[in-house]
Design goal:
66% of the residues lie in helices and 3% in strands. It contains 10 helices and 2 strands; from the N terminus they run H-H-H-E-E-H-H-H-H-H-H-H. The protein has a two-stranded antiparallel sheet. Helix 5 packs parallel to helix 9, helix 7 packs antiparallel against helix 8 and helix 9 packs antiparallel against helix 10. The chain is elongated. The N terminus is likely disordered.
Length: 241
């Protein structure tokens, strides 16, 4: 598919169709093509405009709705409720049902710097290619936040796999569900996605270059960076309250 569809909608790639549609739909809402309070066209019409199947369109709407920009009123349709993604509340940002974010950070600080340094020593050419592929996919601005979070987890898993330490990989996989919960909320913070990708690039460059000390430092900085973004958001929340 090439060219541009009516209304400035760009045709999407066959891979990650729903994520691409969700990202474009969010862009249309943000720039005012669909305004808060306005009802979206029927699912069938949207699917035709985007050039995708109705199941992909339905999934994309669910993604945008989860981000706080749409609301589905059954029997009436889908309505725009905000032109901005909803930011997580204080309690949602720090406390989950089975863990807290500070606890998760403590575990990450215990595991990830060592994993990065081991990976820098032991990474192979195929594993380098895998990291480069993930980084290239994550750089796509058309990706939804959900797709970015999945690539984020895949990247960290690939780094640990490069350590050749089976037990370390099992430990990281055991906290991956918690990582998903936390990441889906934190990624909504302003600038967090760009900061995360920049940290991933620096981390992978050090690992690929077999710079052991730099890899450890990059892993530490990557975790401290998200801590700083959360702290800044909490200050803003307190100032508004």
């Amino acid at each position: 598919m090439t060219g541009t569809l009516p209304g400035g909608i760009q045709p999407v790639r066959r891979l990650k169709v729903a994520d691409s549609v969700a990202a474009q739909l969010e862009q249309l809402i943000t720039r005012g093509d669909y305004k808060p309070g306005e009802k979206l066209p029927p699912e069938r019409v949207l699917a035709e405009r985007f050039g995708v199947g109705r199941s992909s369109m339905r999934e994309a709407i669910r993604v945008v709705e989860a981000n706080g920009m749409l609301r589905t009123d059954h029997g009436r349709g889908v309505f725009v409720v905000s032109d901005k993604k909803a930011l997580p509340k204080l309690s949602e940002l720090l406390v989950f049902d089975d863990f807290t974010v500070p606890e998760l950070f403590e575990v990450r600080l215990s595991l990830e710097p060592d994993a990065a340094s081991l990976a820098a020593r032991r990474i192979t050419a195929p594993e380098v290619a895998d990291l480069e592929r993930i980084l290239a996919e994550a750089a796509d601005p058309q990706l939804s936040d959900d797709a970015f979070v999945k690539l984020d987890a895949e990247l960290h898993r690939a780094i640990v796999r490069a350590t050749k330490n089976t037990l370390l990989l099992r430990l990281m996989e055991s906290i991956e569900p918690l990582f998903f919960k936390y990441s889906h909320r934190v990624i909504q913070l302003p600038g967090r996605r760009a900061h995360a990708h920049d940290g991933h690039v620096k981390l992978c460059q050090a690992i690929i270059g077999h710079r052991v000390r730099d890899a450890r430092t990059a892993a530490l900085n990557h975790i401290r960076d998200v801590e700083r973004d959360i702290a800044e958001h909490l200050v803003q929340v307190n100032e508004r309250s």
